[in-house]
Write a structure and sequence with these properties.
Blueprint (H helix, E strand, L loop, with lengths): L1 H32 L8 E4 L2 E5 L36 H17 L23 E2 L1 H5 L2 H8 L3 H11 L13 E2 H11 L1
Antiparallel strand pairs: 1-2, 3-4
């Protein structure tokens, strides 16, 4: 028994040191080299922090671009999706309520024109980005609420659109918080 017990204890101690001490320290060191130093990249406006670049926020006023819905009410302490199937009755009811709300605030839009991301939450419930299409479809509402022209807002959306990674990986995106802050800076 001694023949097997001593190597097993040694291996357990080595693995504890590697997995519970060394690996976390390595991850912390890598995070400290990233932007935000592992604490997240903050977004400031007029000298004060108004949010994080990679955490979505709720915008419901007609004068702002709406964010993607969140199943966790944009609480970064507990990210997660609804985990309900696409055919789940509760899920379908929630999506229909979101569609109805969007159509009420955007009367010139037809149901089939609404990008799915405006009525469905992301897996984390914290996605801070929209596609350019999801921003463009909101321009008429915002133009009316702010007394701006559609070309002004289209130019703003175009300016804040970030292309795919290396020009080919993933979709073009827009950070909604940054777009709305730029919108406030126009007036």
């Amino acid at each position: 028994m001694k023949k097997y017990l001593l190597p097993a204890v040694r291996l357990t101690v080595v693995m504890i040191v590697l997995v519970a001490v060394m690996y976390p320290l390595l991850i912390v060191a890598v995070a400290k080299m990233a932007s935000g130093k592992g604490d997240g990249v903050t977004v400031s406006h007029n000298g004060r922090v108004v949010g994080f670049a990679n955490v979505g926020q709720k915008f419901t006023e007609d004068k702002y671009f709406n964010s993607r819905p969140s199943t966790v009410d944009y609480n970064a302490a507990g990210s997660g999706g609804s985990n309900k199937a696409a055919a789940n009755a509760d899920y379908l009811k929630t999506v229909q309520e979101r569609i109805d709300t969007f159509l009420a605030h955007n009367p010139g839009v037809k149901k089939e024109q609404i990008p799915a991301e405006l009525v469905t939450a992301s897996a984390s419930g914290l996605d801070p980005h929209l596609s350019p299409e999801a921003a463009y479809i909101q321009i008429a509402r915002i133009a009316g609420a702010r007394g701006m022209t559609i070309p002004q807002l289209t130019a703003l959306v175009d300016k804040h659109t970030k292309g795919p990674l290396l020009g080919m990986f993933g979709p073009a995106t827009i950070n909604v918080l940054e777009l709305n802050l730029a919108l406030d800076n126009l007036k």
